[in-house]
Amino acid sequence: MRFDLADLRLFRFVVEAESITRGAERAGLALASASARIRSMEDTAEVELLERHPRGVRPTPAGRAVLHHARLVLGQIEQMRSDLRQYAGGLRGHVRLLSNSAALFHLSGAIGRFLAENPSIDVDLEERPSTEIAVAIAAGLADLGVGADIAGTSGLETLPFRLDRLVLVVPQEHALATRKKIFLRDALDEPFIGLAHGSALQTHISSHASREGQPLKLRVRLNTVEAICAMVETGVGVAIVPEIALRTGWQDAAIRLVPLADPWASRQLRICARRFSELPAHAKRLVEQLRNENS
Fold this sequence. Notes:
- By secondary structure, this protein is of the alpha/beta class.
- 41% of the residues lie in helices and 24% in strands.
- The protein is elongated.
């Protein structure tokens, strides 16, 4: 049985994208060529590797076995290349990093500085809920993740990153503006302004509201914290955002910040990887940068 590296890379892309078409695009292949390669792999293995459905593909048990070994082989090849690049006069590479919504506010400046200091290293940063990050890292779908330590990270190595706190933002003259702190359940009768659909942070907040037995009354969803706070100023509603997003610039706004007293609203963000020692050199350099900025 012979699979070359191009076969393994294509198969990984297809499974990760859950689509032969999108996997082919990532691999830089025409759809017909990618389909033929996948079929040839199945013919060689004498077993179906993908379950084909109208809305995409999923790996069969045999396909999951191939995917596991493909990730190991490709990971070793990438690490070898990374190590060799250091002897070739400059570190080059690509890091795939997953982050929850709150961590993005902590990461933006650090990633910007890292990219400026390492012009030959690229970072693919994607937002995911913390629970999905842990699963994706364990499955080898990304190099690094940054999420809340409440997410299941069993089997992964983790390092502390930052403490993240959520606050309730209310209009300056609002009845809750004088509170020193507040539990979410005591604010659920208020109309809320939320983040856009697909936001991992908004999903996190909404899930806790549902656990209190009363879903959020979302009047509008906006894409940025700045837009949300501007809407809060108008008196349309209240919002929950990361405190770090409001460290500067809000003092002159007609809003007030009320810390949330719920235990889940104060979370330790952690950097996670399958094994830090096995990361490519460029990913190790990013970890070092993030840890130095946290010290």
